[in-house]
């Protein structure tokens, strides 16, 4: 870990809590919230924009040469920048606007092709996951580790899905999981699902395509917890997304077999 990463971690820990307070303010008045559609089962609310602007502005003030990538405002690069913050202001906007508690704020700091710091906050549950390169994986400051299971039958697997992948591609994944003795769960937030793998609540996670802002905060936590994760940043994963597989080493290969080539 670089010395200045500790400074970034301390600042980001404070900042994500601030953002959680902003988001909860909107969550408490859902009936007056402005919500727009970005596509099938894909919405954006004024809360998403407000939280991202808060994060983006505070990061720019504190680390003016760091680049930024956010789901709502896009990519802002700076000459000479050595790292980039990747942010999802509300991962799980559909649950958020539906009044469900399964949404979160995700932040990752990426350098040299790796997520070196990650924080994921569920404001409703008051749960903050954090971890990174040289930073132990924690949940509200307590150490976490992946599920001890040795087969897919030993726990629940998060099956991620979005309309970027067709039904004909995802249904065979579900079929392979069930035939391998597994069981699926999905709560609308990929970042929370991945963090649930990091802390052992879930056995594994598979998804044919996920965007970087939805997962990189959790990816850093997963690595710090000792989980095995597919190379999400391969190719143009940062800007275009990629498939993802995550789980304890003992079941990782079985999870890869379940996902197979679902995106083709």
TrEMBL record:
The keyword Endoplasmic reticulum does not apply. Mg(2+) 1 binds at residues 71, 88, 91, 214. Its cofactor is Mg(2+). InterPro entries: Inositol_monoP_metal-BS, Inositol_monophosphatase-like. Mg(2+) 2 binds at residue 90. Pfam families: Inositol_P (PF00459). It comes from the Bacteria. GO terms for biological process: inositol metabolic process; signal transduction. The keyword Transcription regulation does not apply. One of its GO terms (molecular function) is inositol monophosphate 1-phosphatase activity. Keywords: Hydrolase, Magnesium, Metal-binding. This is Myo-inositol-1(Or 4)-monophosphatase. It comes from Friedmanniella luteola. The lineage of its organism: Bacteria, Bacillati, Actinomycetota, Actinomycetes, Propionibacteriales.
